[in-house]
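Hey, can you fold this one?
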Amino acid sequence: MAAAVGLRDDFTATDLRRLAQSRRDAGQVRRLLALAVIYDGGSRSEAARTGGVGLQTVRDWVLRFNRDGPDGLIDGKAPGGRPRLDATQRAALAAAVESGPIPAAHGVVRWRLVDLVQWIRDEFAVSISTQTLSRELRAMGYRKLTARPRHHTQDADAIPAFKKTSQPRWQRSGRRSLAGHP
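Sure. Predicted structure:
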């Protein structure tokens, strides 16, 4: 069996407990207290029980603590997935959106998300979903704008006849007050 990875010697169990009292991150506090068990001479299994994790996780905590100190035990933000489009592809996409499609070349008179997905696939050989492309375009500052639909047989001269009109000012109703009721 391999020897356990040793803890750095510039901290003590008392130091870790004092740090744990001053910290707000619950995960970091739990990790500091588990490592304090090891500094007190406890086994890695006891530290794992204290932290509510397995032995491999305690080993990972020890490595992070040795490398980065107490700040290495803070929960980090997950890096997330790799972006589908790089900066040059985003710039080309922005230029294509700004210039608009060429009907003879692209087969459309205005860009839709599905058309842009196909253009990206043809141009860069990158597969991207319409939802992801929509998110990318919104992050680049573009918004979907659509004109209000108008019926093709709508008569512009008939519109004023159907508009609702309101009385020019408020008027008192013809109701009498209850005090004057016979």
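The chain has a mean pLDDT of 87. Let me know if you want another pass with a different chain boundary.
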